[in-house]
């Protein structure tokens, strides 16, 4: 699956909730050597080499955003607890990267990431999902949508994970070389999600973001 999902029992690009304990050099080169730990989990990779296209929640892909300068907007349906988690993930995680966030209080066609709360696919097991709404090239998305499920209280781990997809970070099985989706190298991009897992972006994700943007 190419659409990012965060599920309760995860498969593919899904964040899961388990019950147990332009300015980049490699935009079109999925074979470029990763900068840290020998693992490249920044789209595109050999194992995540789909074409970026306009999509929807039911049929879509995630890609890269179009620049290191990232604008975000919370739609009116975003709960205050979700908004807090979004702000914390940018303050506590993505501030360590070269990405620079600006907040759009009105949604524009140029807004890079649009957050929303609402109904998600599946049988109540999808916590979050990310898809490209406006592809500007075969690798780049001008606007990603991120939807969080109304059925869950959204925490910083979930917002870190879905924001990661919106800037191009993949799961372990889409990285090159492949690693386990639950590898600790992946930080908040690990799946399935186990309650209590630290909401850390992690050094590998930070290095891959900074290498790309």
Structure, described:
With 213 residues, this protein is α/β, with parallel strands linked by helices. It has one domain (4-212): Collagenase (Catalytic Domain), CATH 3.40.390.10. Helix content is 16%, strand content 20%. Strands 1, 2, 3, 4, 5, 6 and 7 form a 7-stranded mixed sheet that branches. Helix 1 links the parallel strand 3 and strand 4. Helix 1 (80-92) crosses helix 2. It starts with a strand and ends with a helix. 51% of the residues are buried. Residues 8-14 and 16-28 have low confidence and may be disordered.
CATH homologous superfamily descriptor: Collagenase (Catalytic Domain)
How are helices and strands ordered from N to C?
EEEHEEEEHH
CATH topology: Collagenase (Catalytic Domain)
The average pLDDT value, as a whole number, equals 87
How many discrete domains? 1
How do you describe this structure in short?
With 213 residues, the protein is α/β, with parallel strands linked by helices. It has helices at residues 80-92, 156-166, 203-212, and strands at residues 4-7, 64-65, 69-74, 100-103, 113-118, 126-135, 140-149. Strands 1, 2, 3, 4, 5, 6 and 7 form a seven-stranded mixed beta sheet that branches.
Task: Offer a few descriptive terms.
seven-stranded mixed beta sheet; 213 residues; globular; 3 helices; 16% helix; alpha/beta; Collagenase (Catalytic Domain)
Give the arrangement of secondary structure elements.
Elements: E1 4-7, E2 64-65, E3 69-74, H1 80-92, E4 100-103, E5 113-118, E6 126-135, E7 140-149, H2 156-166, H3 203-212
Helix pairs in contact: 1-2
């Amino acid at each position: 699956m190419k659409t990012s999902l965060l599920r309760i029992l995860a498969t593919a690009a899904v964040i899961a909730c388990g019950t147990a304990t332009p300015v980049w050099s490699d935009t079109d080169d999925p074979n470029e050597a990763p900068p840290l730990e020998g693992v490249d989990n920044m789209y595109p990779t050999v194992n995540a080499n789909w074409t970026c296209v306009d999509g929807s929640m039911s049929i879509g892909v995630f890609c890269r955003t179009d620049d290191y300068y990232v604008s975000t907007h919370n739609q009116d349906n975003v709960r205050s607890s979700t908004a807090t988690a979004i702000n914390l993930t940018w303050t506590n995680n993505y501030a360590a990267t070269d990405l620079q966030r600006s907040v759009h209080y009105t949604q524009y066609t140029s807004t890079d990431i649009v957050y929303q709360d609402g109904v998600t696919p599946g049988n109540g097991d999808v916590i979050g999902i990310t898809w490209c709404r406006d592809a500007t090239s075969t690798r780049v998305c001008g606007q990603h949508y991120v939807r969080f499920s109304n059925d869950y209280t959204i925490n910083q781990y979930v917002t870190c994970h879905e924001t990661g997809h919106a800037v191009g970070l993949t799961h372990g099985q889409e990285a090159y070389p492949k690693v386990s989706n639950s590898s600790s190298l992946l930080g908040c991009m690990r799946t399935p999600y186990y309650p209590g897992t630290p909401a850390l972006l992690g050094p590998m994700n930070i290095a891959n973001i900074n290498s790309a943007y």
